[in-house]
Amino acid sequence: MIGFLDSLLVTVRTALRRPVTAQYPDPSKRQPVAEGFMGFPALTWDEDVREPYCTGCMVCVRDCPTQCMSAVMDDNPKHAEGASRRRKIVREFEINLGRCILCGICVDVCNFDAIEMSHEHELSKYERNGNRVDLTRLLEMGRAYQRETGWGPSQPKKNSGVPVEKPAGEREKSAGGAAGR
Ligand code: SF4
Ligand code: SF4
Predict the structure, then answer these.
(1) 100 CA to centre of ligand 2 in angstroms
(2) Would 6 be classed as within a structural domain?
(3) Which of 43, 60, 64, 93 best tests ligand 2's pocket when mutated (most atoms within 8 Å of CB)?
(4) Domain contains 99
(5) Domain span at residue 138?
């Protein structure tokens, strides 16, 4: 009898507790993903100079085990104007997210803090290649991730695009050198 009452109590307690599941896919009832969650890769944005961190160097493209990425590099016009430290900048970037295995190798090998595993994970499509995403979309995903997590580069001094002010002595020297030429 006591055993029966015990189990009845467990049943009543379970029936009355608050639900622990979410009503997917209702957007207002979704659970936030964990901070360290690894969703699809996305490109980061350097707000200080208003351009991507990515230089299009191709290191991630060469190391991607599923060869689902491609990138094209360009001379950076902002560097020529003195507005950015990045001599080169990405012109085109594409990832076929349908083939990405979310391994994170692209993030590990990037020397420029330019790519991160975002929190984006809901990209189901009906077409086989419906998840080929371009530079614009990858930057949108990256900016959403940066806003959500307060992301900052792991090597800000090295990877910031903000031009470095030369010390006064050096500035005069290079100006003198230029005048003498
Ligand atoms: S994401 Fe990084 S490794 Fe890949 S092309 Fe851009 S700068 Fe190079
Ligand atoms: S996470 Fe892995 S498979 Fe996906 S793009 Fe990066 S290196 Fe390629």
Answers:
(1) 5
(2) no
(3) 64
(4) yes
(5) 40-156
Tell me which amino acid residue 16 is.
Answer: L
Residues in contact with ligand 2 by the CB-under-6-Å rule are 41, 64-66, 68-69, 95, 100-106
How far is Cα 59 from Cα 103, in angstroms, rounded to an integer?
A: 15
CA of 109 to the centre of ligand 2 (A): 11
CA atoms of 104 and 96, how far apart (whole Å): 15
30 or 55, which is more confident: 55
177 in any annotated domain: no
If one counts the domains in the chain, the total is: 1
Q: Is residue 48 part of a domain?
A: yes
Encode pLDDT of 83-108 as tens digits.
999 999 999 999 999 999 999 999 99
Nearest CA to ligand 1 atom 8: 57
Nearest to 114 by CA among 75, 87, 143, 153: 153
